[in-house]
Amino acid sequence: MELMFMDKKTLITVSMVAAVLAWTACSNAPEPTAADTKAAEAKKEPPKAPEPVTGQTAFYEMYKPARTWATDLMPLSLSSGDLPGFKNEDGKAALWTAIFVSPSLRQARHFTYAIAAAGTVQKGVTADVPEAWSGATKDAMPFQNSDFTVDSDAAYKTVADKAADWLKDHADKKCTMTLASAARFPAPVWVVMWGDSRSGGYAQYVNAATGALMTK
């Protein structure tokens, strides 16, 4: 075996070359890209506070787990609700409740969707235990998802435009929204209401399939 020996001068030269190569490797490190900088800044930003959502957004969040309960389920109603610390506006709400029914099981079940936890309300989707359901009536009929194409914010705007003069004098009235179906309507309707009938409120129906205003 032939051994290779380096004299002192050669060893110093090799060490210097290695040091230069190491320094060059560090100095040639790629500069951070705009995407890297943006990602780093995003990490520093505090998370955004949750915001109220439309009825359709909440509905499909609840529909997905509801399907595991009953594959033949149908929606019976969808209603907006209040959540402490959040303000519902423009057809969006922090809390929504849906009632689904199963014709085969003859049962109904309440599901809720909340954008945040508050008191006894949990964030996300929660479900109550199923209850007996006697079936559809002329005033409360289940409907198909395909008949629910107009979202709550669009329905709200339609009614708010019509009620503009009334709202100027009743800005303190709270708005609630309910999606339901009855025999007297050709499709499910959004009931957009400020106040209630006892306190001189204002209510209007919007066809959830077409977005058209409807008579009561």
- Number of separate domains: 1
Structural class: alpha+beta
Count of helical stretches: 5
Helix-strand sequence: HHHEEEEEHHEEEE
What's the helical proportion of residues? 25-40%
* Distance linking N and C termini: 104 Å
What Rg, in angstroms, do the CA atoms define? 31 Å
The largest sheet, given as strand count, sense and whether it forms a barrel, is:
9 strands, antiparallel
Q: What is the general shape? A: globular
The count of strands amounts to 9
Please state roughly what percent of the residues sit in beta strands, choosing from under 5%, 5-15%, 15-25%, 25-35%, 35-45% or over 45%: 15-25%
Low confidence ranges: 1-6, 8-14, 16-29
- Average pLDDT over all residues: 86
What can you tell me about this protein's structure?
This protein is of the alpha+beta class and 216 residues long. The protein is built from five helices and nine strands. 26% of the residues are buried. Strands 1, 2, 3, 4, 5, 6, 7, 8 and 9 form a nine-stranded antiparallel β-sheet that branches. It has one domain (55-214).
